Amino acid sequence: MPSNLSEERKISYLEDLKTLLRIPSVSTDPAFKADILRGAQEVSKQMLSAGLQNVEIFETAGHPIVYGDYLVDPSLHTVLVYGHYDVQPADPLELWHSPPFEPTIRDGMIFARGATDDKGQFLCHLKAVDGLLKDEGTLPVNLKIMIEGEEEVGSPNIAPFLAEHKERLKADVLVISDTAMYAPGHPSLIYGLRGLTYHQIDLQGADGDLHSGYFGGAVPNPADELSKILAQLRDSHGKVLIPGFYDEAEDMTVSERQAYASLDFKNETLAQAVGVNRLNPEDGYNGLESRTARPTVEVNGLLSGYTGKGAKTVLPAHAMAKVSCRLVPHQDPVKISQLLEAYIHELCPDSMKCQVTHIQANPPWITDPNHPTLEAAAQAVRNFYGKEPVRVREGGSIPIMDDFQRVLGLPGVLLGLGLSDENLHAPNEHFRVENFYKGIELIKELYRALAQATEL
Amino acid sequence: MPSNLSEERKISYLEDLKTLLRIPSVSTDPAFKADILRGAQEVSKQMLSAGLQNVEIFETAGHPIVYGDYLVDPSLHTVLVYGHYDVQPADPLELWHSPPFEPTIRDGMIFARGATDDKGQFLCHLKAVDGLLKDEGTLPVNLKIMIEGEEEVGSPNIAPFLAEHKERLKADVLVISDTAMYAPGHPSLIYGLRGLTYHQIDLQGADGDLHSGYFGGAVPNPADELSKILAQLRDSHGKVLIPGFYDEAEDMTVSERQAYASLDFKNETLAQAVGVNRLNPEDGYNGLESRTARPTVEVNGLLSGYTGKGAKTVLPAHAMAKVSCRLVPHQDPVKISQLLEAYIHELCPDSMKCQVTHIQANPPWITDPNHPTLEAAAQAVRNFYGKEPVRVREGGSIPIMDDFQRVLGLPGVLLGLGLSDENLHAPNEHFRVENFYKGIELIKELYRALAQATEL
């Protein structure tokens, strides 16, 4: 179904998206602090222009949270929308075909860091509000929207914010658009997300870098030792080797595996899409199950010694790895981090000083795939796309799903408007402009469907 | 024995060393091409000021070679001196306590990249010539000095240069000062050097970096796979696991091991000196044997994914390692490189594109520890230091020793003036100023002793 937005609105909405994308609101790096603040101000400005009320920028212990609402009638359902204006770092910069913070349209896609994760997606909600208020003068639900600035660093200040503003944020359902559709033109409803633990491992050998000729073979080499440790994190069957890792990990249910099996997923198609010869899923699971519903451990970064051109015969003093785990219900991220740290220390020879730094820890999240809120969202998809959405879990983490469930007791709907090939967290991130326009219309349908649901 | 250089000469010689050290003549990085040329010009200038004749800068296919000589009488022995004015890269820059190319004196040491490797050492020869010509009006031998600019990148143009200038370079013995003394005040004569092969390993997984949440557990991770490969290069007993690696490796002789055993070497002392809890020498060998007379493989560098502050949940597309082997007689570096490459490809799973780039390959070198040239050098050490030099092998590589032996048929003397704790190839490289002055006097003694040797 084509978007029925007017050309005038399309042009103006796309300009507003570009304005957001020009702000390098990288949350993990303190160098971008001022840009984060500019990001929050721009969100607040666009909330006001959409017609939201009570718009306010709330300071937190970290980056600010922007809030706005439109309260029609206490008898209507109340929907709380969550999004984030912060983005991942853009490096490696040299791999971008256009600068990450100069949004560029090519082949119907808008390229910029944050395009699909999550500026393009949360903006669909603001523009749905804008359209509904302009065309109908009101909304079918009471709407509360909060857009935060620390999603990419684990949302450390959301739980305190929810606790402090419990009354203000009171709602019947939480809606988030920060995931991907199952396939172009085929939305999915996500009923589970993996948790995350993220660590930095530092191995220190000698006091300083040494000449590898003079000392090699006698002095312990942290790059060698780190490799040996990392090699023992996961075996060739995709099984994580950290002792106790699977103890609390709940396997997929029989009905889930049947639902997954009914999808047209093929390992070969995903392998081809990302440019590898073959996937390496966990034994006994296909690629879709492995990447969404099975826990894993990954090396996210490596640095040691000489990495420039040519040769430098150095025996490095230091080696560093970034290592993360993706978790499934009911693995506890804090416990998994402790298991990982203990295992690393057990593997590390006593010739090395070894430090494991805990950077991030977020629990997994799961809900009933047949919850009434998901049924309402499915109705919205049927109304707009004329087809049944796919119900699957997703492999990424939205750290605050657990907070909303725990602190506010809210059921959640994850209705993604992006696609998984849009290079989120990678160079050349993009968002299909058509899906931006369609996303705005789909969100209007979602508000209507939630309004009509008897039970939420 | 204190140096008997006049204060005036000390000051002037040290200034000349500083001038050399201010030039960032890094040979491996094309960005320093102009500095390499400035380095060659400064060496040529200092040769002329020392009184050398026929001074000339010879172009090569790479960086130039500077030559000068002083030919007294055809009936005297002819000594060929070799050194290098190029240096290793200075990074990581942030670990230097003073800038690498602003020579700084602290605690009786001069700190700068190249201070001990090899600018401070070859300059002792130029200053010995300067002193002898000023004080005695002549030299006890015919002297030829060549200082090259590509030692740190494997001296690819020395063999052709030797072949082309065979007549000009004709000599009875080769002298090189580019190694370390055994201990402060206790020079060593090096009769063996390890060879070197240096490689870059590149593993490519997906076409681009991916979100580790969306794809982790299903898409092969090159940082994981690289770690698994590197972990299989050397076992926990210090044995290299590359098939065929030891086939041509000659073990130390019984008399060599006895000579090594008679030295006061202790693993604990070396461990303490470099700041590690313990060494990890090859099983059956102590640290001195392992670092000088046993072959090994080392990881010199690692790079993959995100290496900045905080967390970036990326599944890297690419992972890189620099890997080198140190070789002993009679391992063939080209063959060893081929064995390494074949082994890497064998270990690499078919989910990765794997490339092994050969960067450097130099043969090991060994000579008779009792050769007449070493006896003459020992006499010089006795004359100046009043003690017997230690005769050992060294673990580094001087790529051209094999070229001089093969092309010119020259026996070699390696009389080092540095110390192994002077951070060569590492941050805060330095050279003891006292050893610079003493080195100049010791070299004069060496020329005299070589002049008196009946057979060379």
Short description, anyone?
In chain A, 34% of the residues lie in helices and 23% in strands. With 456 residues, chain A is α/β, with parallel strands linked by helices. The mean pLDDT of chain A is 95.
Descriptive tags:
homodimer; 456 residues; 9-stranded mixed sheet; 4-stranded antiparallel sheet; 23% strand; globular
Structure, explained:
- The structure is a homodimer of 456-residue chains.
- Chain A is α/β, with parallel strands linked by helices.
- Chain A contains 13 helices and 20 strands.
- In chain A, strands 1, 2, 3, 6, 7, 9, 16, 17 and 18 form a 9-stranded mixed sheet that branches. Chain A has a 4-stranded antiparallel sheet with strand order 12-14-10-15, covered by helices on one side. In chain A, strands 4-5-20 form a 3-stranded antiparallel sheet.
- In chain A, helix 3 (115-136) crosses helix 13 (433-452).
- The longest helix of chain A is centred in the first third of the chain and has 22 residues, at 115-136.
- The two termini of chain A are 28 Å apart.
- The relative contact order of chain A is 0.19.
- Strand 12 of chain A pairs antiparallel with strand 12 of chain B.
